[in-house]
Here is the input.
Amino acid sequence: MSMKRVLSGIQPSGRLHIGNLVGALQNWVKLQDQYECYYFIADWHALTSQYADTSRLKEYVRDVLVNCLAAGLDPGKSTVFAQSRVPEHAELHVLLSMITPLPWLERVPTYKEKQSEVKGRDLNTYGFLGYPLLQSADILVYKADYVPVGVDQMPHLEITREIGRRFNHFYGNVFPEPEALLTDFPKVVGTDGRKMSKTYDNCIFLSDSPEEVERKIRTMTTDPQRIKRTDRGDPALSPVFHLHRVFSAKEEQDEVAEGCRTAAIGCIDCKKILIRNLFRLLEPIWEKRDTLLQKPAMLEDIVESGSAKARETASQTMHEAREAIGLGLPC
Here is the structure.
């Protein structure tokens, strides 16, 4: 029996951070031993909001690739490729745009949310509005069985299912309906207590040096109630403790929480434990990153071979889609 197919991608809209690591990459690594996995660098998607300045796009593409490999993705198990090297994504996007009602795109929750969230950029473009449609093409062109998503991302998958159904209704049964591979993505707070995001400039990046990581943790705010070392605190109010919940063992979390409530430990001690646990996680990744960055030809070969394999799969799907629609010269 053939393995079920999983599809997921990540935008090179900036350097990857520890939230991306625990929210996506670690999960991808686990899935590659259970499914036929296609993982792509979504460079076209990065243009939907960052079209005006592409000066660092190649740098960010390389950062995504290197971090994926350093986190444990194996090109021998997973197909790792760049979206822009598989033009079938764009072709299917065009065909789907002919049948997709405009209100379907306008109702996607993130459309208005991001317009109000992202400042200093004009997002009144079709590319931004059509982001979910391109995402649908990404999924459908591989006839993916599963897409790993969090609950908040379900509307994006649902519109993909609706668009696939609409295509099949008009032209015949070409696309299966992808199912959600629901994943509990941990919320990773940034150095300012908000959700870790490149938009907020509050990230601990996978490419940060050990010194940078330590500096960022040491300067994080903690419980505002703890003015003096002897003041008792509430760990729930501390962004540092929120990171402990993701990166520290349960026993250490309990010890840190109790130490905070009783003032048995100070905030500096609390941060030292977190730094130690982050280093334990990041040191193997830093080591692999350093090795990979010394091998640009190998990185290019991985993307090129992965993109060739992805294109072979996508071209088969597009042949079926063209035939179903009736495109091309009659025989």
About this structure: Residues 44 and 131 are 10 Å apart (CA to CA). The two ends are 35 Å apart (CA to CA).
